[in-house]
Amino acid sequence: MKKVKVTILSAVICMLLVFPSWASTSNVLKQPEVALQNDVTKAEVTKWYYRNIDGVKEKRLWSITYGYWKTEWMPV
User: Fold this and answer.
1) CA nearest to 60, candidates 52, 68, 69
2) Residue 49 carries which DSSP code?
3) Do residues 69 and 61 touch, judged by C-beta distance below 8 A?
4) H-only helix segments in the chain
5) What pTM was estimated for this model as a whole?
6) What are the backbone dihedrals phi and psi of residue 23, each rounded to the nearest 5 degrees, phi first?
7) Closest CA relative to residue 46, chosen from 24, 22, 67
8) If residue 48 lies in a helix (H) or strand (E), which one and from where to where?
9) Hey, is 57 helix, strand or coil?
C-alpha cells in the first residue's frame, strides 16, 4: 500500500512540474500577437466637400474619422 501511495505521489509531482512549462509556452506565443495589435496606427479618413456660391467654387475638408471640419471654406 505504501508503495502505491509513493508511486501516485511521484506521478502527481511529475505532472505538476511538466504542466506549467506547457502553459507558459502557450502564453508566450499569444503575447506578441497582442503587442502587434496595439502598435497598429491607422490613418485618418477625410473627404473634400465642394459648393458653388455665386459662381465661386469652394472646398472644405471633413474628417470622417473624428467628425469635424479640418479647414474653412476656401476658393478652388
Assistant:
1) 69
2) E
3) yes
4) 2-38
5) 0.47
6) -65, -40
7) 67
8) strand 46-53
9) strand
